[in-house]
Amino acid sequence: MQPLLRAHASQGEIDRRQADEVIAGLTEAGFFRLLKPNRFGGYLTDVRTVLGVTEALGTADGSAAWLVGLGATAAWLTAHSSPRAQHEVFGTDPNARIAGSAHPAPVRWVEGGLVVSGRWGYASGSPHATWAAIAVVVEGDAGQSPEPYMCLVPASEVRLEDTWHVVGMRGTGSNTWAADDLFVPEHRLISMSAVDSEMAGAAVEPQYRLPFAPLATLALVGPLLGLGQAALSLVIAAAPGKGMHHTFFARQSDSVGVQVQIAEAALALQTARLHAYDIADGLDRTAAEGRSLTYDERARIRARCGYAAQQVLEAIHVLVNVHGAATFAESNPLQRYWRDANTAARHAGFDAVVGYEVLGKALLGVQERVSPMV
Q1: Which candidate, 182, 172, 177, 167, places its Cα nearest to that of 220?
Q2: Band of pLDDT at residue 203, cut at 50, 70 and 90
Q3: Which of 44, 97, 239, 357 is the most buried (most CB within 10 A)?
Q4: Which positions ≥6 away from 280 have C-beta within 8 Å?
Q5: What's the rounded Cα separation, in Å, for the pair 324 and 322?
């Protein structure tokens, strides 16, 4: 897939969405079947495999890899819906593409379901989606907390607003779903509280017993790892033939300063990979053992994902300094890696300061919660 993704990456930036050829290629390769139930023709693989696939795709195009990672998470979440909803989404289309948005809107109950109006931004992959997954919050009775749900809606039943005008990850097509007085039948509601409760442990497949937040966050680390590796490979390949202006070095590779910086970047990326794959292996073990992650374990994962993202950014920062002003030529893919990584790493799930606070409170036994995504 990498040659196809590289060939269309620039056009994807111009169009602010993936090329039809890329979506067709990813679909034919089976990448939109990741974490879908086997009974619907899906590939219910382990978490490490999803991380590895998205990293490999990310070395060619971070935006395409992002869609695969998010698609796998959306498929995993849909597997927690009612049997009827699963059949509607996957029954006739094992390659169904689900573009979700976690920005909640208020709703009202009616007979048989909910009526919802709102706008849901950052719906990555929405231009090619067959289904939308939109977040809502149902207000509880007096003294009860609001209940969050995800609603599964055919893409044909919502509007798509062209709002994705950004400088990085442009190819994700993360536009905005919109709807007015949309009816969502009750069988297409997914209770997010139930997904992360002991009820999820009743699932036959061990992968579906995992908590949502760690799985969803880790699925987005792979594209970042791929972008970091692509940047490292480019700078290493260029160094033996690239001069250093205002020095006596004929080649960058002759400079001890360059050698040290290349080593620093490589080690930062390796640090990020060690964290990411250790988390993946830990999640796979947890699923196989049929146990639940403790809050402290989840807090550590949240912090480590943010830390890994920061290590990738640090590596790319060093590599851009090594490569110099040539980085910013529009024809140089390094500037795209730099923009994409800096955009992707600002996803709320990677907010390192929040992650560190979550972990620090857990280590100190402070009961205050600062994020629902742990």
Answers
A1: 172
A2: low
A3: 97
A4: 46, 47, 48, 50, 51, 218
A5: 5
Instruction: Please write down the HEC assignment for all residues of 200-261.
Output: HHHCCCHHHHCCHHHHHHHCCHHHHHHHHHHHHHHHHHHHHHCCCCCCCCCCHHHCHHHHHH
User: How confident is the model at residue 205, as a pLDDT?
Assistant: 84
> CB 199: neighbour CB atoms within 10 A?
12
- Residues ≥6 apart with Cβ < 8 Å to 329: 335
Q: 287 — phi, psi (to 5°)?
A: -65, -45
Residue 179 has pLDDT above 60, yes or no: yes
Residue type (1 letter), 362: A
Say whether pLDDT at 238 is over 80: yes
How far apart are alpha carbons 4 and 14 in whole angstroms? 16
Q: Which fold has domain 98-191?
A: Butyryl-CoA Dehydrogenase, subunit A; domain 2 (2.40.110)
Coil/strand/helix, residue 361:
helix
Phi-psi region of 112 (alpha: psi -120 to 50; beta: other; left: phi over 0): left
Whole-model pTM: value is 0.95
Residue 115, classed as helix, strand or coil, is strand
pLDDT tens digits along 338-353: 999 999 999 999 999 9
Chain center to CA of 51: 10
Joined tokens for residue 228 = 């970091």
Is domain 210-364 given the CATH code 1.20.1250.20 in the classification? no
For residues 335 and 316, the answer to whether their CB atoms sit within 8 Å is no
Domain range annotation of the chain: 2-90, 98-191, 210-364
pLDDT at 202: 47
255-299 pLDDT per residue, tens: 999 999 999 999 999 999 999 999 999 999 999 998 999 999 999
CATH code matching the domain that covers 2-90, chosen among 3.40.50.720, 1.10.540.10, 2.40.10.270, 3.40.605.10? 1.10.540.10
